[in-house]
Amino acid sequence: MSESSQSFPRRWARTRRFSSGEPRDMRVSADGSRVAFLRSSGPEDPVNCLWALDVDSGVERLVFDPRQAGGAGGPDLPAAERARRERVRETGQGVVSYDADPALTAAVFALGGSLWRVDLGAGSATALPARPGAFDPRLSPDGRRVAYGSGSGLRVVDSAGDDRLVVDEPGAAVAWGRAELVAAEEMGRTRGFWWAPDSRRLIAQRTDEARVGSWWIPSPADPHLAPTEIRYPAAGAANAEVSLAVFDLEDGSRVDVVWDADPDDDSASGAAGSGEAARWEYLAGVDWSADGLVLAVQSRDQRRLAVLDADPGTGACRRRHLVVDDCWVDLAPGAFRLAAGRLVTVENRGSSRRLCADGAVLTPDGVQVRRVVAADESGAVVTASVDPADVHVARVSWSGELEWLTEGPGVNGAAVGGGTAVLARRSLEHPGSVVTVRSDRGPDWVVANHAAASGLDHNVEIASLGARSLTAAVVLPAGAGPDARLPVLVDPYGGPHAQRVLRSRAMFDVPQWFAEQGFAVVIIDGRGTPGRGPEFERAVRGDLAGPVLQDQIDGLEAAAARDPRLDLGRVAIRGWSFGGYLAALAVLRRPDVFHAAVAGAPVTDWRLYDTHYTERYLGHPDAEPANYDRADLTAAAAGLERPLLLVHGLADDNVVAAHTLRLSRALLEAGRPHTVLPLSGVTHMTPQEKVAENLLLLELDFLQTALHLTSNS
Question: Quick check: is 537 in a domain?
Answer without folding.
Answer: yes
